[in-house]
């Protein structure tokens, strides 16, 4: 049984997906949410196998929600189902941890196949997007490390360092990233080790020199 959560700010879409998926053999809908913040609570409570996620939502969008879910629940797979087919948005979603990307014009059978493939560990893109996704990653993949400060850091470590450079406390960072204070302390320690920084002040100074914290 594949356990699925549905996240979309439009109730008619959300209810339609819940009804569609709930009628399929081998799929159980464990809950639904109307925005990214609700999605984080839903995932924490139910730990679904797959989250079917919209992108443009109030309070917390689908890309940021996916980033948090990927960081806190690595076993949960996220399948984007959205009207947005902008190349930059597709790239951002996959880099945030999405395992698939479909447009809302996809048929019911395509959505079902995508959910089953995503749950099995695959990367899934709609037929209309597959060639474009390959092209987008071909153009963007090689240039990305050089464009980022401190390429030795993970994306989460850069998020934390950016907030350190902006003057945030550990507790404030934990609240913004929806993680525990202990997690932030561990990430900060890893940043110090990778940057060979002897103190918080030194790490902040180096980050600001690199343009972070603005």
Task: Lay out the secondary structure.
Elements: E1 2-7, H1 11-22, E2 27-33, H2 36-46, E3 50-53, H3 62-72, E4 77-82, H4 87-96, E5 100-103, H5 108-119, E6 124-125, H6 130-140, H7 144-147, H8 155-165, H9 170-177, H10 181-195, H11 200-209
Parallel strand pairs: 1-2, 1-3, 3-4, 4-5, 5-6
Helix pairs in contact: 2-3, 3-4, 4-6, 8-10, 8-11, 9-10
Task: Determine the strand fraction and express it as a percent band.
Answer: 5-15%
Level-1 CATH class name of the largest domain: Alpha Beta
Helix content: 40-55%
The largest sheet, given as strand count, sense and whether it forms a barrel, is: 6 strands, parallel
Looking at this structure, what is the CATH superfamily of the largest domain?
A: Response regulator
Structural class: alpha/beta
Radius of gyration computed on alpha carbons = 19 Å
Spatial strand order of the main sheet: 2-1-3-4-5-6
- Total of helices: 11
Question: Uncertain regions: pLDDT < 50 for 5+ in a row?
Answer: 142-146
Helix/strand order, N-terminal first:
EHEHEHEHEHEHHHHHH
> What's the CATH architecture of the largest domain?
3-Layer(aba) Sandwich
- Report the end-to-end length measured between terminal Cα atoms: 46 Å
CATH topology of the largest domain: Rossmann fold
What is the general shape? Answer: elongated
Query: How many β strands by DSSP?
Result: 6
